[in-house]
Amino acid sequence: MVSSLRAEGMTFRQFECVSEGEYSPDDAAWNYMDIPHLTYVHKQVDGVLTLAADAVTGSIFFQKLPFLRLPLTVLTYQSAPNAVTYYTSFAFFLLIIQTSWEAMGSTRTRVTTRYAVGWTGWLVGLFYPVIRKLLERNYRILMSEDIPMRNQRGVLRTKGYEFRMRGDVPSFLESKKIMQQNVLTPEQNVVAPRVLPSWGEQIIPFDSLQEAQPCFIGEANHMGLTLLRSGQSIHVYPRLCPHEGAGLDGAVTQCAAAEGGIRTELCTIQCPWHGRKFRPILTISTPMGESAFETDWHTYEVHATQVRIACKPSLDTETLRTADWSRPAKEKTS
Hints:
The protein is of the alpha+beta class. The protein is 19% helix and 40% strand.
């Protein structure tokens, strides 16, 4: 592309930015072809998606700059199995970016982003140093927001988790399906299955829970739980998003309000990566009589002043194949 445009009389200057991290090349590929996270993770860029297919997207982005929002029409496409390319024009400049990734070890990946800035006319070229500084600054901001996502998935992989992906490379279109469960837990991972990462029975007195102060049980994985008091209700939430592995500790809680501003029982948390909302796995309205509930992963015994929560020792094969730890609990019939 650069060679063809040079033949048309354009001048190009090129530079690159490199980052490395403890994650898989698949995590980098997923990150760059993930559409929804642009809205929730990146604060500097607002955008409107205009076109989406498996390997190409078109968008109109509004790049935030001091005192203005710069509209950019951006085309993004998968240019190689391990690379994506973007191009856009702004003012008198043309910008072509290619990002590629390569494995540097079993759990380490290097990502290289190459920038080609083009223009016509020597006078315009005098502003290239300013454009480069703005692009390097923008790169640092984007990486500060993207790398924690990749690192989270890298940590999960070291613990035996894997991620479902249709085909050999991620798809722009598939990334929009935020209700899919793409996380494979250690015991669902057929390549390297591991034992259930369970914890002992937990007894939680209701009076130990403070308003809007989360109580965490277990680790921040698919077996972990968060208890949160809202008025006279105790809500139980997952600690890991089954979509792509985002941690839900610290997720924003939203409680619906009835007329007069009185909170209702409907409280949700929102995934910080893609905006998926979760209703509570279980809501205990205190005081509550003796009752028992269960999910595919846990059992709950509710008493007048406390709740006992325990991990199930095992899951049968059919349940394990379709289990989603964010589904609501059901009352036990026996």
